[in-house]
Amino acid sequence: MSGTGPRKRYTDAELMLYADGELPPEEARGVAAYLAEDAEARLKLESLRQVGEAVRTYAELETDRAEVEVPAFADMWSRIERRIHANGISEPTPAHIRAPAAVRRARPVAAMWAAMRRWFEDHRGHVLTSAISAGVACAIMLALGPSWHAVDGGRGEHGTSHVIKGKLVSQPPEVEGLEVYEGSGTILTLEPDEDDDSGAAAVIWISNDDTDLEGPI
Amino acid sequence: MFQHPNVNKRLENPSIRSNEAADDIDDLDLVERARTGDDEAFRALFERYHRRAYSLAVGVVRSRDDALDVVQDAFIKAHRHIGKFEGNSSFYTWLYRIVMNLAIDHIRRTKRGRNVEFNEAVGHAESDSIGEETLLPRVLDENPGKSLVRKEMREHIGTALAELSDNHRAVLVMRELEGLSYEEMAQAMGCSKGTIMSRLFHARRNMQKRLLELMGGEKDLGA
């Protein structure tokens, strides 16, 4: 930087970037020179250091307190250990780092339950949707009984819906999956008998998938 | 030329003690043993790092109980996936990413409709709104380390931290406890570096402001 002309004044944001090591070297040198001559800027930089000191001290004191005052802190390992064994230890590891055979033989049942549990956790939304859909289908079949009523899907005269008399369909409902935004669905279609001109009835069941907890805040 | 000593550089010696010095066994040795089903080796890793992990978690989620849950879940997850740890980074670097992800998930799930943030998307130019705001002068005059150990100070700092928004607190803690770069924080929080810079600036400024208020205008807090 030359000795002629007014020295550039740096913003507080730039001072912070300098303090955090986020400025390119050339710019960082300019800020360093500016700091050497500006006492107020040095004071601000010191204030940044003090905030950092405050946060670190707080975290350490809180941890000290928890260690002394919170029984659950001291007991943390035993709970972790219990959950590790309840979950059947780890995911399958590559062959070259697998546990010795004796260790593997000792845990086949736990590993099987762990695999089932993990599969359920990964597919919880679909399992629940499927179970609910199956329940709805059964409920419809039972409720309709031998003299069931079906709701016309809006194909009646002048486009209005109306309730029609129907008979028990001989074939089970057709079930289709449905992908919807942030969820999934199931369509149950009940086809009428050939001599019934009232049309098909459909039940559409849509549920949100709430199992995805990944992603930005 | 002025060189400010050690301002917010990546922390080689974090203030949160781990028990790493307690024995000489290398982390990677313990990881290798843990991979083969050696629970004692995994426990040794837990003993080394659970304090530091807790400090990080409690700084982000604030509640002791929630922080304990986060740390427990993090170690269980680490144990489950330890076969995938490739050793490209240190074990703790890998672990803190798990802790941060879980802590961020936690505040995301429990996010309350408070602390609305502003100036999230500013850049670095002088004309940006952040450039017109100023950092305050020093909060403390001398011996901040000594004065900060006082109970009153811990409570003040806790109050000031609690009043930050979840996102502001998360970046401040990531930066000050773990020395993460803006890029690393942007990846962890799924936002831009500019957003991280803005959050960090406002978090620090609000912390300073609030600490000054809580201290009743006193500047010298030396014991």
Would you kindly provide a brief summary of this structure?
The complex is a heterodimer of chains A (217) and B (223). Chain A has 217 residues and is α+β, with helices and mostly antiparallel strands.
Highlighted features:
heterodimer, A: alpha+beta, three-stranded antiparallel beta sheet, two-stranded antiparallel sheet, elongated, disordered C terminus, B: 223 residues, mainly alpha, Rna Polymerase Sigma Factor, Chain: A, Arc Repressor Mutant, subunit A, 2 domains, 10 helices, disordered N terminus
| Biggest beta-sheet profile of chain A | 3 strands, antiparallel
- SS content category of chain A: alpha+beta
Helix content of chain B: 55-70%
CATH fold-level assignment of the largest domain in chain B:
Rna Polymerase Sigma Factor, Chain: A
What is the CA-atom radius of gyration of chain A, in angstroms? 34 Å
H and E order of chain A: HHHHHHHHEEEEE
Shape of chain A: elongated
Q: In what range is the share of β-strand residues of chain B?
A: under 5%
According to CATH, the homologous superfamily of the largest domain in chain B is RNA polymerase sigma factor, region 2, helix turn helix motif
Description:
By secondary structure, chain A is α+β, with helices and mostly antiparallel strands. Chain A is built from eight helices and five strands, in the order H-H-H-H-H-H-H-H-E-E-E-E-E. Chain A has helices at 12-19, 25-37, 39-69, 71-74, 76-86, 101-106, 108-122, 124-144, and strands at residues 149-151, 163-165, 174-180, 183-190, 201-208. In chain A, the strands form two sheets. In chain A, strands 3-4-5 form a three-stranded antiparallel sheet, with helices on one face. A two-stranded antiparallel sheet of chain A has the order 1-2. In chain A, a hairpin with a 2-residue loop joins strand 3 (174-180) and strand 4. In chain A, helix 1 (12-19) crosses helix 3 (39-69) and helix 2 packs across helix 3. The longest helix of chain A is centred in the N-terminal third of the chain and has 31 residues, at 39-69. Chain B has 223 residues and is mostly helical. Chain B folds into two domains: 20-109, RNA polymerase sigma factor, region 2, helix turn helix motif (Rna Polymerase Sigma Factor, Chain: A); 129-214, Winged helix-like DNA-binding domain superfamily/Winged helix DNA-binding domain (Arc Repressor Mutant, subunit A, Orthogonal Bundle).
